[in-house]
Amino acid sequence: MSEPGPARPGSGWPGDPATPDTPVAHDAAGVRALAAGAGTLAELVARQSVCRACPRLVEWREQVAQVKRRAHLTEPYWGRPVPGWGDDHARIAIVGLAPAAHGGNRTGRIFTGDRSGDVLFASLHRCGLAAQPDSVRADDGQRLLHTRMVAAVRCAPPVNKPTVTERDTCAPWLTAEIGQLTADLRVIVGLGGFAWQALWPVLADSGYEVPRPRPRFGHGVEAALGSLVLIGCYHPSQQNTFTGRVTPGMLDSVFQRARQMAGLGEPSGVEAPGYAP
Ligand code: SF4
After folding, report:
1. DSSP category for residue 70
2. Domain total in the chain
3. 174 in ligand 1 pocket by Cβ < 6 Å?
4. Does residue 243 form part of some domain?
5. Range of the domain at 89
6. What is the pLDDT of residues 165-209, one digit of tens each?
7. 152 CB near ligand 1 (under 6 Å)
């Protein structure tokens, strides 16, 4: 039986970017200062992963990691903010809402270990943007290709609903991450309406030309922001996939379009589906 509760920084969790010395943000001002002051992407994600700025979310994520779900009682839970993950020189960024309580909050990697991720990673693999068709644990060998995944809010919220204050408190982490990626980044895929809305102020703060009026969220909707294109994509939630609101083909069309807009062309070599690292 594993220890209940959140993983301690530097205690050996696969891919843990933090150490016991990583500085911790305790409020919104701390997030702004530590996000702006992180000199590298590695330092930025380390700081994200130990953040404690939102009391409600800190309590919830750690409580979930303590109590766990019956199906995962013998597993360790991450129980910390889920940092950005993927290619440090990504041309495509996928921005979601927030980690799932027993998905990313358990595995420590966004969309890893939850049903939405099953659908998402299968599509990314078909489109040559993920090395494997699924993602179940932080040490499963999965790799994102040309792509990075981030959550607009990095801690699992109760009933998947962060507050506006929590969204705004977390925004500087996203602004700083986009800033670190700007040289290579060409496309952002906004997964779901919440991520779409959360992105506008972040993109404005990042120096992109934000269109006015802002385009309404929709599947396949595109907004040009100078060198960057924002593409809307319905969230592959269980509700959306069960009802057919979003299908594997619809996801594939968005990610193929993202490849095209990012100048990646057709998948080849290690990007081709079926490749096993
Ligand atoms: S949601 Fe963001 S700002 Fe709030 S505690 Fe988590 S990482 Fe920090």
Report:
1. G
2. 1
3. no
4. yes
5. 82-271
6. 999 999 999 999 999 999 999 999 999 999 999 999 999 999 998
7. no
